[in-house]
From TrEMBL:
Enzyme type, top EC level: lyase
Catalytic activity: UDP-alpha-D-glucuronate + H(+) = UDP-alpha-D-xylose + CO2
Enzyme Commission no: 4.1.1.35
Pathway the protein takes part in: Nucleotide-sugar biosynthesis; UDP-alpha-D-xylose biosynthesis; UDP-alpha-D-xylose from UDP-alpha-D-glucuronate: step 1/1
Protein name per Swiss-Prot or TrEMBL: UDP-glucuronic acid decarboxylase 1
Domain NAD(P)-binding: 86-388
PANTHER family: UDP-GLUCURONIC ACID DECARBOXYLASE 1, UDP-GLUCURONIC ACID DECARBOXYLASE-RELATED
Amino acid sequence: MKRVFWLIAGLNRRMMKILFALALIAYVACEYLGMSVNLSIERGEIKIEQIIDEVSLTHSSYPLNVFSQKYPPVKFLSEKDRKRILITGGAGFVGSHLTDKLMMDGHEVTVVDNFFTGRKRNVEHWIGHENFELINHDVVEPLYIEVDQIYHLASPASPPNYMYNPIKTIKTNTIGTLNMLGLAKRVGARLLLASTSEVYGDPEVHPQNEEYWGHVNPIGPRACYDEGKRVAETMCYAYMKQEGVEVRVARIFNTFGSRMHMNDGRVVSNFILQALQGEPLTVSKQSGTSTRGEPNVFVYLFSSDLVNGLVSLMNSNISSPVNLGNPEEHTILEFARLIKSLVVSRSQIQFLPEAQDDPQRRRPDIRKAKMMLGWEPVVPLEEGLNKTIQYFNRELEHQANNQYIPKPKAARMKKGRPRHN
Ligand SMILES: NC(=O)c1ccc[n+]([C@@H]2O[C@H](COP(=O)([O-])OP(=O)(O)OC[C@H]3O[C@@H](n4cnc5c(N)ncnc54)[C@H](O)[C@@H]3O)[C@@H](O)[C@H]2O)c1
């Protein structure tokens, strides 16, 4: 104690000031670090996207040089915890975000995709990584591979894409799902089916809970997808009951985010693209007005929220279907105005005739996901939209540099002999 006293007494005023300043700097640094750690934990999902964006931007030009490739950071998992995971449709919008999450969590991921609507660019930042494999394969053909879990996402998801070749859409959802269930049975893997809110059709019950059987037109233009997914669910439960395959079924509601197709004809991509290009924001008559006496409302989930829901469902013990969606409702007009203001666009809003069988109102009842998975959406709509707008801006720059962005073709209407699908 005496020594400390002598030491303090020996310090002159200048040294005291320096010591005080150092202590202050140390305090501020600790506070800042603590805050940023907390922030990155809270906004973990957005953080994954930022890391991937940074890495992707460093090698956004083809051809890839795999030797100089830098990968996003990957956790180390012991042999016991590391799973071999197959993601069908893993080069698509949702599949590629799921790939990012599972890779960064330290698993071995195999992506299988026929690149109908998916793109190699969506997963290019993993090519060459020892935990990653990309296989160009159509799920309509059998696949033999050793895996522990299968996320079965392969299927076109937006109306122009699934209506382009309805027979192929049906085959992908039926034969493709049978093939994946057969694989799951052979290797003892658990399979999660990416089903859809479209199984509820144009619902008469609002909001839709998992008990609702739906209201689907079996011969309408959307039937190839809606009925394809319904039968895919049926197949999952047949394999579960008859063969003991472990299945999980996620009924996914409208989701948006980076890597969604620029031209997929859905509300979010349409509005962002139109606003960025200064074109009128097109709203179908039925959805803008409310001729049925109720407002036409839709809900939008950000991709990272969906990915977290899919992973929790896969690792849960819930084998019955679970809704994954955002219950926060918005009218289409509200949405158009919000996007206009975020993009700071002068585009007008223009009304178009209603499309056939367009569902008028959709809202998930997510009580089951909340109660049994502890899952609910956390990313605010504006934050998700801003990220998506940034992505679309970058894509438009690519386009301006003559880089290829696939556009959906018009639905096929054939005369004469049909082509083999
Ligand atoms: N995005 C949404 O809002 C939404 C909503 C409900 C359900 N879903 C479901 O989630 C899954 C993924 O949707 P997404 O939005 O990422 O669509 P997406 O079109 O971006 O991805 C689908 C992927 O599957 C691939 N694919 C299609 N047919 C295939 C085949 N026969 N063999 C192999 N690969 C094939 C495509 O090339 C693409 O990469 C789909 O099953 C979809 O039905 C999505």
